[in-house]
Specification:
about 40% helix, 10 helices, alpha+beta
Length: about 280
């Protein structure tokens, strides 16, 4: 049995979905049936699970904790050719902050709460408990690897695993674009007396919190959910001058954290305003 297969089986027992890596630290090519995405490209499916092909196929979606799959004849032959082991962090409920430069490591130590840390060739992996969407290049030398991604196994590291902080989630939220800013600037201005003419600040905060909860709780139909939440907020507060740029940015941020692009957020906001005649 190969050293890499031994490691993979150990990690699988610990609940980490694993897959082999070939030269270049990348997954093995898709099988002939799935070559060039002939099968539809399983990893592009949002809820893709373990690959059902006989051998490792479909990149991160091949990751599994099933010892019978890992030790099957086809996989064993692949393990003997492998140069490393990778795992699917999101499949284990984890997020890896991949710090690829010394400067990125310095930034993390100054900006992020401590957690389990694993040394890498050029930097460190900071591992948090909790899954989120994966995004590369969130800042210089920093990638987020969680759902629909893989990370190379480099050991258990040191330190206590801590909960995924908002500071990491916020890294994937882009600043409002010029297009979004136009939507924000188009909001009605606050009344001259500085107070909402018909609602209290607590009522507004409750409305924003409900919209945030509604978007966060969506498991499907994200576009429709974001639009409906924006519409509900604007229908109540879009005419009275209550909404501020901070409120709008908060709604956009939670929508982007669920996978909406900045443009989709802006379109949903603008479409809701148009429907209400604002």
């Amino acid at each position: 049995m190969s050293e890499h297969l031994n490691t993979a089986l150990e990690l699988a027992r610990a609940g980490l979905p694993v897959l082999p890596l070939r030269r270049g630290k990348v997954p093995f090519e898709n099988c002939p049936t799935c070559a060039r995405n002939a099968c539809g490209g399983r990893p592009n499916m949002k809820n893709a699970g373990p690959c059902a092909c006989p051998g490792p196929c479909h990149a991160w979606a091949a990751a599994t904790t099933d010892p019978d799959v890992l030790g099957s004849p086809t996989w064993v032959r692949t393990w003997h050719r492998a140069v490393g082991v990778a795992y699917h962090p999101g499949g284990a409920g984890l997020t890896v902050v991949d710090l690829d430069t010394p400067a990125a490591v310095t930034w993390a130590r100054e900006s992020l709460p401590p957690t389990r840390t694993v040394p890498t060739t050029r930097g460190e992996h900071w591992i948090y408990q909790g899954a989120m969407r994966s995004v590369n290049g969130v800042r210089p030398g920093v990638d987020i690897k969680s759902t629909m991604a893989y990370a190379r196994w480099r050991g258990y590291g040191t330190g206590t695993l801590t909960a995924l902080p908002d500071a990491v989630r916020a890294l994937t939220v882009r600043a409002p674009s010029a297009y979004q800013a136009q939507c924000i600037d188009a909001l009605p201005t606050r009344a001259a007396e500085g107070a909402c003419p018909h609602r209290t600040p607590a009522f507004l905060e409750r409305g924003i919190a409900m919209a945030v909860q509604r978007i966060n709780g969506a498991s499907s139909g994200i576009h429709a959910t974001v639009y409906a939440a924006f519409l509900a907020v604007l229908s109540t507060h879009g005419r009275c001058g209550c909404l501020t740029e901070d409120h709008t940015a908060r709604l956009f941020a939670v929508a982007q954290a669920k996978g909406e692009s900045p443009r989709h957020c802006a379109d949903a906001w603008n479409n809701a305003r148009t429907r209400l005649g604002l």
